[in-house]
Please model this.
Amino acid sequence: MEILNSLTYPNLFTLAELEVGEHFLWKIGNYTVHGQVFLASWLVMGVLIIASLAATQNIQRIPSGIQNFMEYALEFIRDLAKNQLGEKEYRPWVPFIGTLFLFIFVSNWGGALIPWKLLKLPSGEIAAPTNDINTTVALALLTSLAYFYAGLSKKGLGYFKRYIEPTPVLLPIAILEDFTKPLSLSFRLFGNIVADELVVAVFVLLVPLFVPLPVMALGLFTSAIQALIFATLAGAYIHEALEGHGEEGHEE
Model:
């Protein structure tokens, strides 16, 4: 689907034009891949891998530079996982929650800060991976698999008792909840990132000097918050699967 929004003045000239929905497609066998999403995703992963390697090349007892920054990021992620999962359960889930947070955070900020338009493609343009619904749905489905795995690994088939507790009448609602969780996760992230990029693009087209800067700064803040919300909800869903509906909350 292609959407074209334009502001014109009595058929004389175009003041602003914004095109959304055009993709650079690759054919891999029988599959069609969004090439720009593939490239941007690997670029984000490359940044994270290089930063991790740089931080661990020459570890010092008193950290500085990139080591200090990465240790701060790790501590933040550990606290995030601990707050959601509790002291006893959080450690195995730090890599998963941390990967979600860092990938979304770097993707969102990369989309806001990097001038992707300078890289020309035959069609479409490179943007943040989270700008594409396929990426956010994939992240949401991974989260769903993670909390099913968490519940089954701890409780076995007894995990499915949660669907009929405290009464079997709630079975349809419990099943519906498992579908709405990934939907809400994916559409919340996708909608906020696309809306932010469209707002910034419109302001840049209409008032290309200093007016867009506060909107861009707000977009960076929103992008960081969206990464935090996604990782926090992932941790909350995993905690719910581990503890069950009827048990007490986090243990500290």
